Amino acid sequence: MPFVKICGLRRPEDADYVNAAGADFAGFVFAEGRRRISVEEAAVLRRRLSGDIVSVGVFVNERPEIIAEAVSAGVIGAVQLHGQETAEYVAGLRKLLEQKSVGGRIPVIQAFCIGDREDLEAALQSEADFLLLDHGAGGTGKSFDWSLIEGEKRPDRPFFLAGGLGPGNIEEAVRRIRPFGVDMSSGVETDGFKDGEKIARVMRAIRALRGSCG
User: Fold this and answer.
1) Where are the beta strands (DSSP E) in 8-101?
2) CB 3.0–4.6 Å: which of 27, 36, 110, 214 could bond 56 by disulfide?
3) pTM of the shown model
């Protein structure tokens, strides 16, 4: 059963919700948008998070040196790329992260918008550790066509499923797609802010699925 990533934490209570629910990953958005926070704000939230939750920094076409600084400061333990980063960029970033990290390899997640099979084939060429397959640029609250990755079409490498996921469809998504992880932001919000009950409902559904699989 999948790991769970709750993205777009902005407030102290957001960290509390994630802690209480027992999510696996928590995302801090450092790119433009309404969920953007500073590295300093993220550091405060990181200290509030449970130590076993992996903090993920979300960047769009950022200079690798900026990302490496956030890693070396202990603010994030994984990197998510949401821009037009090339294979050369990913390779250079990974090399820099290896130099900066004192705690082992820093996972790199690369996000892709999936509209057709060509988009998926392009995503599969990524040199990142994990893929994130999404509807759009992130946080749109919409799902892409899951039939593109369902059954025999399912990618043969670890990926996070994103886009329009929440309490109402998380069970269906996991049963149909069987992703390595699921990523949620707007689907666990109410009026634009993280909703602790929605996050808890998602985690209860995931745990029930985990239990049914023994």
Assistant:
1) 25-29, 54-59, 78-81
2) 27
3) 0.93
